[in-house]
């Protein structure tokens, strides 16, 4: 089953999560995304400057981990966590600017996936940014917190996102300084991402230097990616799965 | 010195009396006992609200008690004792398995300000009362865990600098504008009502208290580490 496609548009690579489902982050989907990123990485050697845009079809950008698939199996939970951490490592070391065109709901792991990109643009007519963990009774791992801490500078907004589990629209995200721009529709959002991508590629940046600088900027995240202390928390994960 | 009342889903912690609610061994013990009680009685969907009677929220450590030791060394030892024994109060608030709101009903100074800041949310009066870190004016250093509290709860470096290095006495409107309190209200009655409303709204979410506390500690990792609060890892499922 095809889970994502990659389209080349000039210097830009557009990775789209396909299908009308919730784009849950199970090992199969994560592998598909990582494999697409690998292809882009090797393709881009012929261009000095490219940019990545990640988008999705349907009502969801991504609703996070596939808790239904994992059930209460500790091995499955650990596998999903380890794969997502590897994907985030890929994105943080990616040799070009990255833009998340959030065309639908981005929840929990999906929120993390969006914010693993350098820039986040989003549609304003529907969809929420939502760290749902508090509402479903799941502890947030330290590496998620490190990412949130690096990408959301204001402790008041971090508290709102993490401790209040607030569902933020694109406009609310822009007002709080966490979303770069809000657009009227999914199509407009992708167009906006493309415009931003083109502006960034015009700078002619060196890919390796961009990657290294980003790794330094988000070193705090990379330092925490080696472990997920919550994947032993079996009881909580099965409580969450039963709430689905 | 302080009382704990349960009203529906809300735990109401009140600093009693018309005095400055100075943090001395007696009040600190009383606070620890109240927080321990709230923790023991906590259920899903409750919240803590901390208020004070009189003109003061709390004016900080009981320096008069420290100085009544008789000698300079004795006073220093007593002050250090207060700094150390207040740490568990901040830790208890950080560990509390429910959302916490404080209505800063009067002046909150030094350790009193830290007490307010140890809550998840704060509301304040605009007509009276200031937030004030007096240490720079009276010549006392600020404990490391107060610094961590400021750093992790207050994003604006300029606000931290103005409060800590300039001894700024911040009133409600400015505190609201700079994001240090959620909102400022026109009177004592209004700010208390607002804190209860906020507590009820948070309690309505019916969050699992244990998970809430773990996420809170994850949100303030430096402070948690400094207070010796390990985050729990549930290693064995309940069969």
From TrEMBL, chain A:
<keyword id="KW-0276">Fatty acid metabolism</keyword>
<keyword id="KW-0443">Lipid metabolism</keyword>
<dbReference type="GO" id="GO:0006635">
    <property type="term" value="P:fatty acid beta-oxidation"/>
</dbReference>
<comment type="similarity">
    <text>Belongs to the enoyl-CoA hydratase/isomerase family.</text>
</comment>
<dbReference type="GO" id="GO:0004165">
    <property type="term" value="F:delta(3)-delta(2)-enoyl-CoA isomerase activity"/>
</dbReference>
<comment type="pathway">
    <text>Lipid metabolism; fatty acid beta-oxidation.</text>
</comment>
<dbReference type="Pfam" id="PF00378">
    <property type="entry name" value="ECH_1"/>
</dbReference>
<dbReference type="InterPro" id="IPR029045">
    <property type="entry name" value="ClpP/crotonase-like_dom_sf"/>
</dbReference>
<dbReference type="InterPro" id="IPR001753">
    <property type="entry name" value="Enoyl-CoA_hydra/iso"/>
</dbReference>
<protein>
    <recommendedName>
        <fullName>Delta(3)-Delta(2)-enoyl-CoA isomerase</fullName>
        <ecNumber>5.3.3.8</ecNumber>
    </recommendedName>
</protein>
TrEMBL record, chain B:
<comment type="pathway">
    <text>Lipid metabolism; fatty acid beta-oxidation.</text>
</comment>
<keyword id="KW-0443">Lipid metabolism</keyword>
<dbReference type="Pfam" id="PF00378">
    <property type="entry name" value="ECH_1"/>
</dbReference>
<comment type="similarity">
    <text>Belongs to the enoyl-CoA hydratase/isomerase family.</text>
</comment>
<dbReference type="GO" id="GO:0006635">
    <property type="term" value="P:fatty acid beta-oxidation"/>
</dbReference>
<dbReference type="GO" id="GO:0004165">
    <property type="term" value="F:delta(3)-delta(2)-enoyl-CoA isomerase activity"/>
</dbReference>
<protein>
    <recommendedName>
        <fullName>Delta(3)-Delta(2)-enoyl-CoA isomerase</fullName>
        <ecNumber>5.3.3.8</ecNumber>
    </recommendedName>
</protein>
<dbReference type="InterPro" id="IPR029045">
    <property type="entry name" value="ClpP/crotonase-like_dom_sf"/>
</dbReference>
<keyword id="KW-0276">Fatty acid metabolism</keyword>
<dbReference type="InterPro" id="IPR001753">
    <property type="entry name" value="Enoyl-CoA_hydra/iso"/>
</dbReference>
């Amino acid at each position: 089953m095809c889970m994502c496609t990659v389209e080349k548009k000039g210097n830009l690579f557009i990775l789209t999560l396909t299908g009308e489902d919730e784009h849950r982050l199970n090992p199969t989907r994560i592998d598909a995304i990582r494999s697409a990123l690998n292809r882009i990485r090797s393709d881009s050697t012929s261009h000095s400057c490219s940019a990545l845009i990640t988008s999705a079809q349907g009502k969801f950008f991504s609703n996070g981990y596939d808790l239904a698939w994992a059930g209460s199996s500790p091995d499955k939970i650990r596998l999903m966590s380890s794969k997502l951490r590897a994907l985030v490592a890929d994105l943080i070391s990616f040799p070009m600017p990255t833009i998340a065109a959030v065309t639908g709901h981005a929840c929990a792991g999906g929120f993390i996936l969006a914010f693993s990109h350098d820039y986040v643009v989003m549609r304003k007519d529907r969809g929420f940014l939502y760290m749902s963990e508090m509402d479903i009774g799941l502890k947030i791992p330290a590496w998620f917190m490190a990412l949130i801490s690096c990408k959301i500078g204001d402790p008041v907004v971090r508290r709102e996102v993490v401790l209040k589990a607030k569902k933020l629209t694109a406009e609310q995200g822009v007002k709080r300084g966490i979303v770069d721009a809000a657009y009227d529709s999914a199509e407009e959002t992708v167009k906006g991402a493309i415009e931003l991508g083109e502006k960034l590629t015009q700078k002619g940046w060196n890919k390796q230097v961009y990657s290294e600088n980003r790794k330094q900027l988000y070193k705090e995240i990379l330092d925490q990616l080696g472990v997920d202390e919550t994947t032993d928390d079996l009881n909580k994960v099965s409580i969450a799965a039963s709430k689905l | 010195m302080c009382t704990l009342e349960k009203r529906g889903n809300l735990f109401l912690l009140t600093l009693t009396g018309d005095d400055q609610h100075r943090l001395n061994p007696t009040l600190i013990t009383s606070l620890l006992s109240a927080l321990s009680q709230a923790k023991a009685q906590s259920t899903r969907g409750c919240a803590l609200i901390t208020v004070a009677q009189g003109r003061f929220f709390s004016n900080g450590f009981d320096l008069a008690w420290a100085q009544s030791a008789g000698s300079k060394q004795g006073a220093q030892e007593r002050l250090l004792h207060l700094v150390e024994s207040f740490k568990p109060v901040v830790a208890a608030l950080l560990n509390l398995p429910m959302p916490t709101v404080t209505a800063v009903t009067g002046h909150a100074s030094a350790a009193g300000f830290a007490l307010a800041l140890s809550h998840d949310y704060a509301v304040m009066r605009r007509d009276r009362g200031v937030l004030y870190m007096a240490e720079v004016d009276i010549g006392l250093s600020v404990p490391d865990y107060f610094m961590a509290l400021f750093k992790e709860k207050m994003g604006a470096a300029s606000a931290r600098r103005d409060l800590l290095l300039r001894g700024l006495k911040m009133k409600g409107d400015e505190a609201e504008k700079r994001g240090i309190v959620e909102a400022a209200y026109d009177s004592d009655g209004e700010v208390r009502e607002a804190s209860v409303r906020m507590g009820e709204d948070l309690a309505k979410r019916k969050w699992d208290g244990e998970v809430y506390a773990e996420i809170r500690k994850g949100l303030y990792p430096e402070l948690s580490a400094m207070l010796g609060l390990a985050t729990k890892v549930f290693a064995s499922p309940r069969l």
